[in-house]
Amino acid sequence: MLHTNMNFAGPLLSLNETDNVLIAREALAAGQRVRVGETTVELPKEIIPGHKVAARRIARGEPIRKCNAIIGRAARDIEPGEHVHSHNVELVDFERDPGFGLDVRPVNYIPESERATFSGIVRSDGRVATRNFIGILASVNCSATVIKHIAAWFTPERLAAYPNVDGVVAFAQTSGCGMSSPSEHFDVLRRTLAGYARHPNLAGVLVVGLGCERNQVAGLLETQGLQAGETLHSLVMQEVGGTRATIEAGIAAIRQMLPAANDIARREVPASHLKIGLECGGSDGFSGISANPALGAAMDLLVRHGGTAILSETPEIHGVEYLLTRRAITPEVGQKLLDRLAWWERYTHGHNGQFNGVVSPGNQQGGLANIFEKSLGSAMKGGTTPLQAVYEYAEAIDRTGFVFMDSPGYDPVAVTGQIASGANLICFTTGRGSMFGSKPVPTLKLATNTPIYERLAEDMDINCGLIIDGERTIEEMGQEIFKHILRAASGERTKSELLGLGDNEFVPWHMGIVS
Description:
alpha/beta, seven-stranded parallel β-sheet, 20% strand
């Protein structure tokens, strides 16, 4: 990991001996005297937790180093103890050697007989689920209201006779027509819908279309290799007889699927069946110090047990992509990652987006000056094992180990793609307090700092702020996260599930022109 030299002594964190900034672990008052390097200085202004101060004098134009990585350059001379942030840090791109494969190290796999297990649901074809839903997919926005009404009919009272079914969930979406077809956007939408339709966490699926849309139901099923049967039904509103008739037919179809969906039992299966989607939202200056590296340590454990870790959010590796290409198992894998970044550069050209340096107000308030600094923390979620493969958005993941799936950084879009690609559990780190859940896959939320965990205890599952508090090491926290993952995969409800979140977080990536 990038910051093995962390020093937690005092109110300022030293992450690496090569850094020229320190991180405030607590609120520091203007005029407070603190130890900075070899001297004691009086802070010229208040410093918010998670923000940076200069560890020494930094000359104008000198690189700003955090975790021994460049996150920008000084826009002017910066004195020791001075606040270092977007007001005096310039984002300047610089040449980065991809160093394909230079940091690849063999994985110390756990012997199969000693690997961790969880209580999973094994489908008839061998796929393993962590939850047991029936899903309703809209081929187009025009059938979104209908599928919501169908799902709403299945109240807890009506599902009481089916205790092994976690629910009936509608995956409404706002595309499917008014779009170019064929196009990349069209292909991505169909791939996403198909990924959900074949997801092991859905015991049964109903696809509902309007009838005149570009994304025709019959074409969707045919092109994606989906076949109608006992667990996959489809309805077209214009053929069935309209809104009310389709709602009634949809309810009947799902009632027909419920008995078989309920006829399941969990049993112990190897952790190698886990595919974990890694997400961060509402990141702060502690994200790359606590929750993200701790999650990375948990993913290293998962990979050693034969499982799969899925890093995404391509704009949020911009600037530190070399940390991943150096772990690519072949130059081709590393180059594919660079190709996706080049695509993003073209896609966002001329726009004031995150890829071009502008992070959200919450990120800035939390201590992140720009996208390079945010990316530095974001990439840590992937741990340290070799990068086995790079996938496009919602592409089915067929390799185990650490992989990358291309996606935007926007949380619901990224997670939707991960689930479509096969993720059966999501781990979501947050420093500002993202309120997020997902269906049909459970989400575990990891707080980067203790104040957020305590303030939002009803939403947060794991307090990684214990690292900042000096009560846990990154490795110890990684062990705790891994154990929590096994419990959640076995059916233990996450905080977002207890709150009923996840019905509105299905957001396929809109890529193209709407006409």
